[in-house]
Write a structure and sequence with these properties.
mainly alpha; 51% helix
Length: 106
């Protein structure tokens, strides 16, 4: 008895079309849950002595210098940053810059 070959390409396309959006929605965490996850596993940077800060910054791209900003200033900065993050984008575009670059018209 000879078996007939079935063309599975249309069936595979149908399955991918139906299942891929569902799998992606389930597997892709939201930005907030991603941020919460990263915050939960993040390790604080060790403080760097002021005389080594420039070298550490050049080497690692980031540096922690303790006791430069007061806790009150940190709280105010954090509140401002979270407000900026959660607010809708400005309705007025910045016409003094070239989009996608750091170039500015001055």
């Amino acid at each position: 008895c000879r078996r007939q070959r079935m063309d599975l390409a249309p069936f595979a396309r149908l399955l991918i079309g139906l299942l891929l959006p569902t799998i992606t929605a389930i597997a892709a965490p939201s930005a907030i849950s991603r941020e919460a996850h990263l915050a939960s596993i993040a390790q604080p940077l060790p403080p760097t002595p002021l005389n080594e800060a420039a070298a550490v910054l050049m080497r690692d791209g980031v540096v922690r210098i303790s006791d430069v900003v007061s806790p009150e200033q940190c709280a105010a900065l954090k509140a401002h940053i979270l407000e900026l993050r959660d607010s809708p984008p400005s309705a007025v575009p910045d016409l003094d810059c070239v989009v996608g670059t750091r170039l500015r018209f001055t």
